Fold this protein.
Amino acid sequence: MSAVITHPGRAAGTRRQLPYPIGRQFHADLLCYRRNIQSVFFTILMPVLFLVILASIFRNTLATVPGGTIKESVYYVPGLIAYGLITAAFSNLALSVVRNRESGIYKRRRATPLPASAVIASRAAIAVLTALAITVVMLGIGWAAYGASIPGRTAPAFVLDIIVGAVVFCCLGFAAASLIRTVDAVQPVIWATILPLTFISGIFIPTAVLPRWLAGVSYVFPVHPLAAALLTAYNPHTTGSGLNWGYLAILAAWGAAGLIIAIRRFSWLPQGG
Amino acid sequence: MAIVIYRSIAGYRRRRAEAAAPHEQDLSPDGPPPTQQAPRPDGQAAKMVKAGGREPAARGLEGTGQVSRPPVIEVRGLRKSYDGLEAVAGIDLEVRAGEIFAFLGPNGAGKTTTVEILEGYRRRDAGDVSVLGVDPAMAGRDWRARIGVVLQESEPESELTAEECLSLYAGYYPAPRPVAETLDLVGLADHRTARCGQMSGGQRRRLDVALALIGDPELIFLDEPTTGFDPAARKSAWDVIAGLRDLGKTIFLTTHYMEEAEYLADRIAVLAAGQIVAEGTAATLGGRDTQASIVSFTLPPGLPAADLPTAVAGCVTRTANGQVEADTRSPLRLLGVLDGWARARGIDLPDLDVHRPTLEDVYLQLTREPR
């Protein structure tokens, strides 16, 4: 009957600390993510497809940006990076969180010593990593196909925008997941909130073309500040560092709001029927 | 912490061995009682139980021997309401170390609410709850390292293999069991490289059990662990669960299968409408041991029920088409009278049947609405 106490840790009476298995959790989450190859492929492919299509349609037109005009093909690169980042950090994250919750995976993990922060940090890290991959792919295509590149002077601002944007949309993704009750509801809710915002936030249609009031509406939501911040850092006419603290402040406010909702409403237990 | 557990388990074993050994020897004369078995690899547990046959459940008959066991779960006056509806209406429970405690009740009786409060998922409205000496509502990671949970419904991480999934969970605990050995214990050794998403229902359930065991917990919650199993899979799951008790684990089991409770449980509590309506062993639950037996037989053609001796006729509760049913608390005496009567007439009663109330009969009586 002493089988239970013959495991090395206990039989020897050695005191073992509770592990903080963030690395292991991230490794497993990444493995799951990679094995879901279709999801990864299309998450990265979608902004690329949009870029190729939009750049082909508007290949001879110029977009008005602060400081002058740029080719539309160049204009679309930062906007569609924002779009890809939102897909990775917000849409995909919310979907996978709701799915893990509703299928009981989170409930089971909650019965283990795994800290909540490790679950959340690991999933957020996947989102940030995907956002970075999309950024690199899109910048590469922009450079190779449309001859556009980030001025070195504004590159740090661009990187900062990407990181802030990814973290903010992760917070919003967790907030959305905590408000959505079923897996079936995720896609409609995500698309009904994000798609209209992308149309009025200068991602598919340059803001300069929009009616003033519509552009005004977009300023208070989180999509426009991200797209605009990335455009500022990407725009060759930008002078100075390319950092726009106003945009980042709006993003940060949304991130904080998302974080508060997520903390208050997040549940490890299935919510739907 | 590990030292404390070690000491408490060792101490409890000693006490239990002293208190329980004579009874266990009575019940299993073919071999040494499990408390004195030599250490063995954990993987052998299931096989040991098979060899022991029905011995494990019989331990519930120890009676006073259990009193010395330290309580693992203590619940007093537990209450929980949802939107004004009382799901749990003041229940008391005590589960002692090393026993399999079965918690029965119809759907909606408050079982899942109670279990989720004990597991630390839900807050209670009132009452005292102690699980492994800690209030689950306040419990931290240290406490969660000491429990294992098999949820009623949960899907595995479908992109991982069984082995990867167990390795992931092993990494959550300070002193996990070896992965390969745990896979072997639940009978998944041949499926270690199978993706969890592609496993059959029975295999997934075994994986659920393996995931609950990987942290080498002291207390395991099993919420309807064999629902959806075919009979062979259920039987082998029972062997695994009985094997866990032989590893010294305490098991809190909920189930809808009475045979499961009867085969496994040392003690049973029945919950109905948020209250415990009966508690005892499978043999004594709801007065099962003292309830009347039903003796039934068919009278040969031409013999009316009026011809029966008075000792039998006085017990008859039903006659129809020559079929006779009699209730008695002394079935042997009644059969003796019946035997003499039948011999005197040179007849036999080929369909004679003595029916003891099954656990299911008792359970259905206890949970019948309105009570």
